[in-house]
């Protein structure tokens, strides 16, 4: 996302220009995946700025040419006239500790799955959770605030949890190795253990 | 009731979890769900070097085993 008066109108002019991300988080990986389609790798200039608010405000103040953010910062930026140059999506992950048992994980997934049905039936009804989140409610208000009507609903994609496929894990692993984000000696099989997720998904489906 | 403590970071990642808790869906499954919010990071040193940033980021509660699940 760029400022309303930014000369940038598509990602191809962002070469050697600073783009605010949070390293090792979704904004970092999505930025690389999007920008590598427009720019040679050595022209991509990502800068770690921390939280979505810090990234958004660095863009708004002009410290960086662009920032990578998720909702509700996209809705706020668009309300303020900022331009989205590109948009990407990624799979979320539930990360459980090694003492999480299958039955508990399946029960959690059933509850969250029912909530996803409620959410998808009427997304606007639940957007107050994004607007009123104490982490950023004051910051949103500072820029004029948001209402549920400010959000582009198709952007909010919630699906029921399923285990990552081996193909997705392998593709992501090789992409990370190519960018030097993971040790090439590491094995995907050693890094991802879907043991509980697979069993819990079966239990949740059976319920 | 089985006690589970979950980390909450970005609200957009946890939206269904908020709904599940407020609609009693965890309770109906026998889960006593508690949320622990990560603290927003303060000023961070800006860097272009990913290796200069701890990849754990704000997930310290999980690393310290104070929560048993988080999402990102």
Core attributes:
heterodimer; A: 207 residues; mainly alpha; D-Maltodextrin-Binding Protein, domain 2; 2 domains; 9 helices; B: 72 residues; alpha+beta; two-stranded parallel sheet
How is this fold's topology laid out?
The complex is a heterodimer of chains A (207) and B (72).
Chain A: E1 18-21, H1 26-35, E2 45-48, H2 52-61, E3 66-67, H3 73-79, E4 94-96, H4 102-121, H5 128-131, H6 137-142, H7 166-178, H8 188-191, H9 195-206
Parallel strand pairs in A: 1-2, 1-3
Chain B: E1 2-8, H1 11-22, H2 25-28, E2 31-37, H3 60-63, E3 69-71
Parallel strand pairs in B: 1-2
Summarize the structure.
Chain A is mainly α and 207 residues long.
What would you say this structure looks like, in words?
The complex is a heterodimer of chains A (207) and B (72). Chain A has 207 residues and is mostly helical. Helices cover 42% and strands 6% of the residues of chain A. In chain A, helix 4 crosses helix 9 (195-206). Chain B has one domain (1-40, 53-72). In chain B, 28% of the residues lie in helices and 24% in strands. Chain B has helices at 11-22, 25-28, 60-63; strands at residues 2-8, 31-37, 69-71. Chain B is elongated. The chains are: A mainly alpha (207), B alpha+beta (72). Chain A binds chain B through residues 22-26, 28, 45-54, 70-72, 92-97, 99-100, 104, 107-108, 110-112, 114-116, 118-119, 126, 129-130, 133-136, 156, 158, 181, and chain B through 2, 4, 10-13, 15-20, 23, 25-26, 28-31, 33, 37, 40-41, 43-48, 50, 52-53, 55, 57, 62, 65, 67-72.
